[in-house]
Amino acid sequence: MNYTSLTTPAALAAFCEQQANQAWLAIDTEFIRQDTYYPILALVQICTQEGELVLIDPLALADLSPLWQLMANPKVCKVLHSARQDIEVLFQLGKQMPQNLFDTQTACVFLGYGDMAGFGRVVEAEYNVSLNKALSRTNWLQRPLSDEQIHYALDDVHYLAPLYKKLHTLLTAEQKQALTQDFAEMLNPALYQIEPNQAWLKVKGTKGLNTKQLGLVKQLAAWREQAAIGQNLPRRWVISDDAILQLAKRPARTLEALYKVPDLNAGTVRQYGEVIIEQLDLAFASPDNWPEKPANPPGLSPQEDILLQLATSFAQQVAQDNGIIVNNLYQKAGLVTLIRQQPSSLENGWRRLLLGDPLKELLNNQAWLGVVDQKIVLTKT
User: Fold this and answer.
1) Average pLDDT of the chain, as a whole number
2) Measured between alpha carbons, how far is 58 from 204 in angstroms, rounded to an integer?
3) How far apart are CA 209 and CA 206, in angstroms?
4) pTM score, two decimals?
5) How many Å apart are CA 358 and CA 377, to the nearest integer?
6) Cα separation, 124 vs 188, whole angstroms
7) Are the C-beta atoms of residues 56 and 63 closer than 8 Å to each other?
8) CA distances (Å), 270 to each of 63, 237, 238, 258, 259, in order?
């Protein structure tokens, strides 16, 4: 497989300048994030509009600013598959958000691949090619890279380019317009910037906690975020979500009591014990900083409950027909707000086309449900 390797500032600058006026680039990254807070970018693979394969070696380049400028160029569409992690890496390291995105994984919803289609599965189905995924956990920081590693890395963009062109041809104008909403949301910096005081929102398992307990979670999560950033460590290496939850439910008031907290290992207590007690004391002393629990929406009326059951049945049929994970298609709250004609999460992107708009037609007496071949189908009136 022929490719160009960019390892000098001049070569990188020349390539990025050359591509600044192109319509699109197919891009993938390889990075390591095992024992650091910030990812280590190890490789950037690109397939140009002309089919040229390029490898950019971040380990050989101290200054990647030409690449960051190219990523932020709104005239060039950046084509990625399952773009979320790549965007996070590029944003955190480049300090600016990439612009003009096309995520083929999201777009593949309209080809019947579901919402979480792995790249290998799509390539095999579309091109009858089985990609070698044996190196998905390889050490991308080693140099020189083996021929097998290089081939593996380039395969992703080599097939990503024709997949993008095929999608661009097959998708309707309505589907493309819907996808622009999804892609714009992916490029929202708020998804990738975690303010320490908002870090508690990322802690899993807080449902059911009272206001005081949420205040303890908020204080501990903010401290953890700052400690992880300061030491460039994974958050879980400072303290785990499970330990934070245990401390919120049964807060320890002494160093000795910390050793009895489930999910809090002795090493963490030895290193951070005094600080943890200090953070708990701060939380107890600052009830004004405890987060407010969101008010529960009004209960369903009997008629709304009937409509919710109807909408849920149709939504489950849509999920099954399109290979979509049910919880990724809709939440109960989204269905309820749609029934109540309030702003709903189902009014944006691909979810709007597949579920939101059909449900609105049903609720507005513009369509009806029937059963064909034991499947629920919606027919417009």
Assistant:
1) 95
2) 34
3) 6
4) 0.91
5) 10
6) 32
7) no
8) 40, 13, 12, 10, 9
Which amino acid appears at position 238 of this protein? V
> What is the distance between the alpha carbons of residues 243 and 239, in angstroms, rounded to a whole number?
7
The H-assigned helical ranges of 171-290 are: 173-186, 211-231, 235-238, 241-249, 255-258, 266-285
The residue type at 26 = A
Q: Which residues pair with 379 in a beta bridge?
A: 368
Instruction: Tell me 265's DSSP state.
Output: -
Q: How many C-beta atoms surround the C-beta of residue 333 within 10 A? A: 11
Per residue in 143-176, pLDDT (tens digit) is: 999 999 999 999 999 999 999 999 999 999 999 9
Q: How do strand 24-32 and strand 77-80 relate by DSSP bridges?
A: parallel
Pairing of strands 77-80, 101-103: parallel
User: What DSSP assignment string belongs to 145-201?
Assistant: PPHHHHHHHHHHHHHHHHHHHHHHHHS-HHHHHHHHHHHHHHT-GGGT---GGGGGG
Measure the CA–CA gap between 83 and 94, rounded to whole angstroms: 16
